[in-house]
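Quick check before the chapter quiz. The format below is the same one you will see on the exam, so make sure you can read both the input and the output lines.
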Amino acid sequence: MNRYFKRIILIWIAVWLLVDILILVNNHYGFYNSEIIVINADNLGKYLKNNFIRSLNANGLPLQLNGSGKDIQYNYPDGFGKIWLQKQIRKEFEGVGANAKFDWKTGNNGFDITLNNMDIKSYKVRFRKKGNINSGLIAIIIDDFGYFWDERVDDLMKMEIPMAFAVIPGHEHSERIALESLNNQKELILHLPMEPIKQQGRAENFLLKGKMSENEMRNIIEAALNGVQGASGINNHQGSKMTGDRRGIKRFLAVIRPLNLYFIDSMTHASSVAYTEALQMGIPASRRTIFLDDSEDIKSIAYRLDELKKRARDEGWAIGIGHVNAKTISALKKEIPSMIEEGFQFVFPSQLVN
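Here is the expected output.
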């Protein structure tokens, strides 16, 4: 037997051994499931009572079945944003070959879905809010990344809860932090400078002003996003003047509307109209509930975290914005474990937008 045939035999043996090892590993750990489900009239009921609930629970949406037969209703906790709910549920049904049509006309108490595919015609499923998830949903956004990289950034990268990093474009570490935040399973936000009433410190690059034309804003936003690649949303850095300028903010929102990004109004001033205008224009949006560290005093930050918890209990959700400083990080490290024990669930801001 020549060397060529020996080599072919050895390759086949190696491939066979590799496949055998993968099968054994999968049987032990269950890394993948070769079963592909396509729902039809016969298995629809079983799917809705079992696989559907398990899948949504695994993706962060707790569901409780309430009903049977053709009268299926799910109860879900209040607080989750409409955009995220629709995305998760539609994705699940598309994965089993069904189109889901959403009807939000039930008011603030939930929504209905009509399912259709080749075999299923107009099957309706109800989803209704029922209380909060334990104590409430909390999203933490940390602003002002990009100026530096030190142990404070390292500490935040290591935090294991869902969290969003808001990166200012154009600084020495902006691009690296954007990349590493995604690598560390953080949600990335473009922290976009906007015109303040009174400038504090030097003006940032990529600064949006209310008097700019739509094209001027578009050029700035495109360049900023290029420096913070992978951002799924935008929030404003400063911006007390621009976010109160209805015409200016409408031009800004018109630019980001086709970009499939959400917007968080940082609410740097009570006069802001950015959040309400975003909703009116059909842009996924939410707004800051509490600033965690207006004061860098550790007791003040702890008090703000208590306020954040109270709002989450009362309203079902809350968004806290903090900054890259040592005392904020210390307070989060101390308080987060007890907040989880109290029943609060940490989520990404994208899960709370409407």
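If your answer matched, good. The two ends are 70 Å apart (CA to CA).
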